[in-house]
From TrEMBL:
Family: Belongs to the glycosyl hydrolase 1 family.
E.C. code: 3.2.1.21
A GO term for molecular function: beta-glucosidase activity
Family matches, as Pfam families: Glyco_hydro_1
Name of the featured protein: Beta-glucosidase
Enzyme class: hydrolase
Keyword annotations from UniProtKB, A to Z: Carbohydrate metabolism, Cellulose degradation, Glycosidase, Hydrolase, Polysaccharide degradation
Entry annotation: catalytic residues: E379 (nucleophile)
Catalytic function, reaction form: Hydrolysis of terminal, non-reducing beta-D-glucosyl residues with release of beta-D-glucose
């Protein structure tokens, strides 16, 4: 029998070279808010607004990672992680968002990166995970064009110091949230609520991505990879009724094509411009912006948690907006006539239905829509009501089931041709979950915030085994 004639092995594993990682973000874990020259970001300000964050929690101390990064890297090494996705704090690196770099702020990331490399863990850095220097917000924030130019300057400062050792850079994390939760519904910093500002913020974030990409390319070695992470929505119409299908088209426009078309095709979708015409005339888009925004990137990061089910308005069946985002106001500009409904399925502690098919749908759609663009799952995970039992163990079978289901979906998408190169679990550690404060635990490592003690949950052991074998257990 020739080798060629042997039956091909049943594909139970992930491809060789698949990157196994975990993710965090600066404001959610670092703490040390006033140390070594760091100035406040919009989240320092927003978390002090009464009622903005549950329990009045702030990121002042968070998981104290700034001081405990060595132990945290050791923990990552114990789990066998191949890569670590973290974010750089803009106000630590460039206090106030203008002027020269703060060497003490860069020193922290320098130490962190060296520690990761010493443990064989690849650093994957995000430049902007929502912590705009407060001074830039006071000067107008993301609705103002100049903020995009400030971002490019910051990108250059970060890359010139760290670019020799960080092979993959992400410009922005989830600009949808920065624009629409930050300036639309106001449940995220800076807490502003004007849909026209939200759309201007959206455009300037994309411009920042384009200008930042150019700044990174100018500074980084040729082999470095530049990426963007989006929280694209797996949008599903409730039925095939034309009204429901049109609601799905509109939400697909505002969640997905409003990013993918400018970044990958250098244009805004005509239907989105028409749908939002009553909100803004889009005059903030200048000649040349779309060429800047559509500079080639090396991969696309996808964050996925739960699908988005939409339907046409039904005056007889009023339903609260259940799009997974809290707040009285809608983050979606021009969403009159659209109902957001929950998907079927068990809910996590965030109230988000568990539905791994949504991840498969997204990855295979991107396989078709962006042929040849490498994909990374840069966030996926779940919050549950975890507690440490009297023996000190943290049993989190629901999280294991969630991860198993979603990793199976990733594997299925890969088998069906989606070019997915890696998976970063959200999150390594329990952390400051934005407007929910410390009340929602996403970590595979439990953090007791009073003592800062770290305890790997059962899911951490489970994930370590997946990473080790490259396979999902039965
Ligand atoms: C994403 C954020 C991340 C975390 C998870 C739960 O939207 O990027 O910081 O809060 O949700």
């Amino acid at each position: 029998m020739t080798v060629e004639a042997l039956p091909s092995p049943v594909r139970t594993g992930f491809p060789t070279g698949f990157v196994w990682g975990a993710a965090t973000a600066a404001y959610q874990i670092e703490g040390a808010a006033g140390e070594d020259g760091r100035t406040p970001s919009i989240w320092d300000t927003f978390s002090r607004v009464p009622g903005a964050v549950r329990n009045g929690d702030t990121g002042d101390i968070a998981a104290d990672h700034y001081h405990r990064y060595r132990d945290d890297v050791a923990l990552m090494a114990e789990l066998g992680l191949g890569a670590y996705r973290f974010s750089l704090s803009w106000p630590r690196i460039q206090p106030g968002g203008r002027g020269p770099a703060n060497p003490a702020g860069l020193d922290f990331y320098d130490r962190l990166v060296d520690e990761l490399l010493a443990h064989g863990i690849t650093p994957v850095a995000t430049l902007y995970h929502w912590d705009l220097p407060q001074e830039l917000e006071s000067a107008g924030g993301w609705p103002v064009r100049d903020t995009a130019y400030r971002f490019a300057e910051y990108a250059q400062l970060a890359a010139s110091r760290l670019g020799d050792r960080i092979p993959t850079w992400t410009t922005l994390n989830e600009p949808w949230c920065s624009a629409f939760l930050g300036y639309g519904s106001g449940v995220h910093a800076p807490g502003r609520t004007d849909p026209a500002d939200a759309l201007a913020a959206h455009h300037h974030l994309l411009l920042a991505h384009g200008l930042g990409t150019a700044a990174l390319r100018a500074e980084l070695p040729a082999a470095a990879q530049v990426s963007l992470t989006l929280n694209l929505a797996a949008v599903r119409p409730l039925s095939t009724d034309p009204g429901d299908l049109d609601a799905a088209r509109r939400v697909d426009g505002l969640a997905n094509r409003i990013f993918l078309d400018p970044v990958f095709h250098g244009r805004y979708p005509a239907d989105v411009l028409a749908d939002t015409a009553a909100v803004t005339d889009w005059s903030f888009v200048h000649d040349g912006d779309l060429a800047e925004i559509s500079r080639p990137i090396d991969s696309l990061g996808i964050n996925y948690y739960t699908p988005t089910v939409v339907a046409a308005d039904d005056p007889g069946a009023p339903a609260p907006r259940q799009d997974g985002h809290q707040g009285e106001r809608s983050p979606w500009p021009a969403d009159a006539g659209i109902r957001f409904l929950p998907a079927e399925g068990n809910r996590t502690a965030m109230g988000w239905p568990v539905d791994a098919d949504g991840l498969y749908e997204l990855l295979t759609r991107l396989r078709d829509d962006l042929p040849g663009t490498p994909l990374l799952v840069t966030e996926n995970g779940a919050a549950y009501e975890d507690y440490s039992d009297p023996s000190g163990a943290v049993h989190d079978p629901e999280r294991v089931a969630y991860l198993h289901g979603h990793l199976s979906a990733v594997r299925r998408a890969i088998a069906d041709g989606a070019p997915v190169n890696g998976y970063f679990l959200w999150s390594l550690l329990d952390n400051f979950e934005w407007a929910y404060g410390y009340s929602k635990r996403f970590g595979i490592v439990h953090v007791d915030f009073a003592s800062q003690r770290r305890t790997p949950k059962d899911s951490a052991r489970w994930y370590a085994e997946v990473v080790r074998t490259g396979e999902l257990p039965d």
